Amino acid sequence: MTSPLWKLSFVVPYEAAEAFSDALEAAIWPEVLAVTTTEAEPGSSPLVKTASDWNEVEAHGLWRIEALYAEEPEEDALRETIARAEKETGTTAQGIHVDPVPDEDWVARSLEGLEPVRAGRFFVYGSHDAAKVPSGTIPLLVDAGQAFGTGHHETTAGCLEFISEMLRPGVPLNALDIGTGTGVLAIAIAKLARVNVLASDIDPVAVAVTKANARANGVGPFVTALTAKGFGHTGLAARAPYDLIVANILARPLVSLAPSFRAHLKPGGTLILSGTLRTQENMVAGAMRMQGLRLVSRKPKGDWVTLRMER
Asked: How many domains does the chain contain in total?
């Protein structure tokens, strides 16, 4: 039986929600897996447009902030992070509580029934859709499991499209996938280019899922997965510099990793970044430019954007 995940939940006014969400994402400890913001009282406030031009949210009402953690977060550290956001916004978080998430393979349940996804030359599917794989595509078998990243989200699809456009079979390539989740990006690189890929994630469950998925896709010997926070593992430095680094994580961690990206990337190497909202694009791209990395291309999808940088 796996250890339970833990969820922090509280309510703040809409206009303060982004500041609290950003504070939780930026916190070094406890390190968050994901942060969501949703209307706490749907239907109670007027709708306003968002930056996506097609979505609307309820403004001036109460919004619920939820943060997911791999282990029970320390209460003092959480309170300190929340207190900073309270001071910044002049508001007080209401109904703060932390609870274990029932061990019911909740990611798998949330993804039941998802249709296969076509992203560039790749076709991402679950085992129940094996008969639907079109000829001429590169199949990526990723069943729902206890890790993030199945190809259905815009951020993963954007990365897969860049990988599909860039890589060619037989061309030597030293590649790294930071924050690998289910390993789908590392597996895609290995299947397309037939090269060895190093994959890392802060979550040991994700590392185990990545290894299993690599074996299921016939690239087990090509994908090495290890548990690491950012570049904090000797195995990552030992294989540097890299021709290609992909990182589909959150915007704030991407910014904090900018110097490490440059240090571990070959001159002329490529960096693919995702997990970034359009509203966070300038922040992420600016941090990379300060390290001498230049923006080559971008793929906006819905509220999200995937960036391709070069050193």
From this structure: 2
| Single pTM value for the model | 0.66
DSSP assignments along 184-207, one per residue? HHHHHHHHHH---EEEEES-HHHH
Q: Tokens 């599917």 map to which residue?
A: 125
- What are 10's two structure tokens? 């509280």
Indicate the SS3 state at residue 149: coil
In this structure, the answer to whether residues 278 and 172 fall within a common structural domain is: yes
| pLDDT one digit per residue (tens) for the chain, 311 residues | 445 688 899 999 988 988 998 899 888 888 887 777 777 765 555 545 444 333 344 455 788 898 888 889 999 999 999 999 999 999 999 999 999 876 554 444 444 545 678 899 999 888 777 888 889 999 999 875 543 444 557 888 999 999 999 998 888 899 999 999 889 999 999 999 999 999 999 888 788 889 999 999 999 999 999 999 889 899 999 999 999 999 998 888 899 999 999 999 999 999 999 988 888 999 999 999 999 999 999 999 888 899 999 99
- Measure Cα distances from 11 to 58, 231, 266 in Å: 14, 34, 45
Query: In terms of residue numbers, what domain contains 49?
Result: 5-103
